[in-house]
Amino acid sequence: MNLIDVIMEPLQYDFMVRALVVTVMAAVVCALLSCWLVLVGWSLMGDAVSHAVLPGVVLAYVIGAPFAVGALAFGVLAVVMIGVLRGTSRIKEDASIGIVFTTLFALGLVLVSVVPSQTDLSHILFGNILGVSASDLWQVGVLAAIVLVVVLFKRRDLTLFAFDPTHAHAIGLNPKRLGWLLLGLLAVTCVVALQVVGVILVVALLIIPGATAYLLTDSFRTMLWVAPLTSALCSVVGIYLSYWFDASSGGLVVVTQGVFFGLVYLLSPRHGVLTRAVRTRRTRPTRRHRRPLSPPNGSISLSRDL
Amino acid sequence: MSTPSELALEVDGLSVSYGDVQALRDCTFSLEPGRVTGLIGMNGSGKSTLFKSIMGVVTPQQGRIRVEGADAGVARRAQQVAYVPQSEDVDWDFPLSVGDVVMMGRYGHMGPTRRARAADRAAVAHALERVDLTDLADRQIGRLSGGQRKRAFVARGIAQEASLMLLDEPFAGVDKRSEGTIITLLRELAAEGRTVLVSTHDLHALPTLADQAILLLRTVLYQGDVEGALEPRNLTRAFGLDLTGDADSGGAA
Q1: Which residue among A142, A149, A161, B6 is least packed, with the fewest CB closer than 10 Å?
Q2: What is the pTM of this model?
Q3: How far apart are CA B116 and CA B118, in angstroms?
Q4: Cα separation of B58 and B17, whole Å?
C-alpha cells in the first residue's frame, strides 16, 4: 500500500471526513488560544476550566440549551469560585484551583450517571471523534467561528493583557475585562474540543501547541501561525494513526502533539536543548539568561487582577 | 502637552490599604510640569502603591488624584499617563520585538482592533529614534541590555505622547554609562514640558537626575529640593531608622 492509499482510504467514509474536519477546527481554535494561555501562565486555569465545564454541558443537554451556554456558565462559575476561595481564606491558589475544578468535574460525572441519555460517559471523558454527527459538526463549526472572529479582532488587546496588564491600566483599558474575555473564549473552546479528545485531554490541545510554537519563534505574530498549523497537522496525523492502528483517536491526537513537542524541545533551531548544547560547545560558553520556571511574581495565574 | 499654569499631578489625601496593612496614609503632594522628581523611599514605603494608584491598578480608600487638572481616570483614557515598569515585573522572554512594545504605547490612540495607521507607525519610529533604538526595532526585547530595555519602555511612553511619565526603579540592573544616558533622556523629556516621576533608591544619581525629591514612608515626609532631601535627618526619617521594625510591616514594595 502506498502513501496515497494510506491517506485516501479513510476518506471514503463520511464519519472519517467529519472526524477530520472537526479535529482540524478544534485543533486550530485551541492552538490559537494556547498562545496566550501559555504566555499568561494560565495553563492550570485551562486545565481547571476544561474540567469544570462538564456539569454545565450535561445540564445544557438536559434542558436542551446549547452546550456552549452551559460550559460558559460553569467556566465562569469555576473561575469566580477559585478567586473567592483564594481571596477569602488562607488556601493558596493552586489548592483553590484543585479543589474547585475536581469538585465541579465530579459533579459532572454524577450528573452524567443520573441523567438518562444515549450519550456514553466515556465519550464525554475521552471524546467520540468517530461519532460526530452532521449537527455536531454545525455546532462545533459555529462555536469555532465565533472564537476565531473574536480572537482575530481582539488579539492585540489579549497580547497586551498577557504582556503588561499594568500598561493596559495606565492607558485606560480594563485588563480585568480582557482576562474575562480570555476565560470566556477558553470555556467556549472547551466545548469545541470536547468531542475530539474529551474533557480530560482538552487541556493538552490548550497548552501543547502554544508551548511548541513558543519554542520555535521569538515573534508572537509567528506563534499565531505556527501553533494552529502544527496543531492541525499533528491532530490529523493522530486521527490517521488511530484509523490504521485501531486505537484511541483522542489519545493518539494528544500523543502525536506531545511527541512533536518533544522533538521541538530537543531540536528547535533557537531554543532547542540539543541545539543549544551543540552551539555552546562550538562557541565559547556563554551564560544565557534563563527564564525561571515559575512566572516572576511567583504566583501561578490569577495575579493578573482577576 | 501641559499648559504651564496647571499642576501636572495633584495627589490629595491619598490613603490605600491592602486588608489590614496600610500602604499609604493621607499622602498629599503636587508636581509642576516640566520637572523631574525623584520619589525616594525604602521597600514597603508605598512607592509602588502610589504608582499603582495613579495608574488605577489599586483603588484608594480615600483621597483623589488629578492629572493635568483632570480626574486620573479621565487622564488615563486621554493617554496622559505612561509607565515604565520595574525590570522584574516584565517577562523578558515574551515573544515581542522592541517595535511591538513601543507600538503598545499607541493602543490608546487606536480603534478597537488596535490596527496601526501611518500616524502610529510614524510615532513609533520617532520614539525609537529619540531613545536611539531604531536599529534594534526588530529585536526580541529580552535580547537587549539593561539600559536598552529601559529605553524601549521610555520610548513606549514617548509614542504614547503622555504628559506624565512614571518610572519604577529605572536604574536597577543598569550600568553607570546607561544610567547617564537614561538621565539625559529624562531631562530632555522634562525640558519639553513632560512631567517625570522616578522612584529610585539610587541616591547618588539623584542630584543629576532630579529637580526635586519626595521622601515617602507611607506618607510624604518631605518634598523640596534634592539637597534638602539628602540631608541626614531627612534620610534617617525616610529610611525608618527611628521607627524600629515598624517600617518592615508594610507589604507593598
Answers
A1: A149
A2: 0.87
A3: 7
A4: 9
B156 reaches A (C-beta below 8 A): yes
Report chain B residues whose CB lies below 8 A from the CB of A162: 94
**In chain A, which residues have their Cβ closer than 8 Å to the Cβ of B108?**
171-173
Cross-chain Cβ contact A172/B73 below 8 Å: yes
Share of chain A above pLDDT 90, in %: 50
The number of domains in chain A is 1
Residue ranges of chain B assigned to CATH 3.40.50.300: 9-80+162-249
DSSP 8-state assignment for residue A261: H
| Domain presence at residue A219 | no
Contact across the interface for A170 and B81, Cβ inside 8 Å: yes
Residue A8 is part of a domain; what is its CATH number?
Answer: 1.10.3470.10
Torsion A235-A241-A242-A247 (CA) sign = negative
Mutate to test the interface with B, among A157, A166, A301 (most CBs of B within 10 A): A166
Neighbour tally for B8: CB within 10 Å? 28
Across all residues in chain B, what is the average pLDDT? 90
Q: Would the pLDDT of B65 be above 80?
A: yes
Q: What is the pLDDT of residue A115?
A: 82
Q: Domain for residue A119, yes or no?
A: yes
Q: Over range B64-73, report the average pLDDT.
A: 94
Tens of pLDDT, residue by residue over B182-207, are 999 999 999 999 999 999 888 888 99
B159 touches chain A (CB under 8 A): no
Mean pLDDT of A14-25: 91
**Is A183 part of a structural domain of the chain?**
yes
Inside any domain, residue A209: no
Angle at the Cα of A86 (from A55 to A100), degrees rounded to 5? 20
Helices (H), B131-251: 146-160, 176-191, 206-209, 226-229, 232-238
Q: Cβ distance B60 to B145 under 8 Å? A: no
Q: Flag whether pLDDT at A141 surpasses 50.
A: yes
State which residues form the domain around A161: 3-199
Asked whether the beta carbons of A172 and B73 are under 8 A apart, the reply is yes
Which cell numbers in the block locate residue B170? 529605572
- Give the residue from A155, A157, A167 with the most B CB atoms within 10 Å of its CB, the best one to mutate: A167
Higher pLDDT, A265 or B236: A265
CA dist B84 and B167 (Å) reads 5
- The proportion of chain B whose per-residue pLDDT surpasses 90, expressed as a percent, equals 79
Average pLDDT over residues B58-70: 94
Domain B9-80+162-249 superfamily per CATH:
P-loop containing nucleotide triphosphate hydrolases (3.40.50.300)
